[in-house]
Amino acid sequence: MSKEKTSAAAERLRSAKRLVVKVGSAILCGADGVREAWLSALAAELAALRKAGVEIVIVSSGAIALGRTRLKLGRGLRLDEKQAASAAGQAALAHAWQSAFAAHDAPVAQILLTLDDTEDRRRYLNARATFRTLLDFGAIPVVNENDTVATSEIRYGDNDRLAAHAAQLVEADTLLVLSDVDGVYDADPRTNADAVRFDVIEKMTPEIESAAAGPNTARGVGAGGMASKLAAAKIAAKNGCATIIAAGHVDAPLARIFSGGAATLIEADNAAANARQRWIAGRLKPAGEIHIDAGAEKALRSGASLLPAGVTKVDGAFARGDAVAIVGPDGRAIGKGLSAYHSDEIIRVAGRRSDDIEKLLGYKRRPAVIEKNDLALHEKPER
Description:
By secondary structure, the chain is of the alpha/beta class.
């Protein structure tokens, strides 16, 4: 096996722990429907990453393109016609992904989102919990916008932005956008032979954004373009997620990146990596208190989640998703977090093992009372 070349995009992809992959309709669909051989090859690459321990989420376009063919519709569709095409194409799209991963014993789950699902707090929490549970079970969520119920006023506008919001929901570290162009250029490479590709973009600038190309109008599929991909990368960067834009129409696109092939890495905002913790620590008013023992405090300061076994007492009434103060054994607040349980549930499982949760509550809950990514701890005082 030849030695793989090193590139910024390759290194980022190799280090990914939770990866969102966006596949556009322009590369997924051909004139006769899904490009099955190409999709099978991509599924094999993603299944190999999954086997290596990388959690995979896919954001897939293609429902409208497939449905339009099935319903024998032309181009330039009205909103209601696009929604009808989406309804007709969703089943075919889900089946295509399911078939591609079947050979790798990788279960696929379909998730349809609207903008409300990420802007309404309760729906956001429910969507995030669904993603987390699916990933815990080893499933590969395949996401698309719920075009059949979305309207032009509330739609994401394209699946590039949807992919960025999905990356935010699952707290991904890497977003891979497979495109019909092998990266970001200082001009449109399809019309300008002198265009130069950026290997790494540390920070988005107006000059870079102004060079973005428009949608792939020639093939009549897709609603995005380089401008929407850069907009998605900005959303991802603000949430501590790096973005790779690379050619997707080639066979084995991940292998091409790993071997040093052309791609652009748009780095995450380093300050954004801790923005969530700062938001939890500084802007959310606690709705109650969770008291913990010394062992739990030590575990939290080591980067662990808060488990029921370490809880000694609950003060106040609060709901799942509310901010709560975390109080150490000496009575001092050591931080804040977002509770994964209602307060009455924590009271019932306090001091007990996570294995006992289902028996005590009568239904399943996640093993952690507060996930480590939902924690913001104060500095430990010097003694």
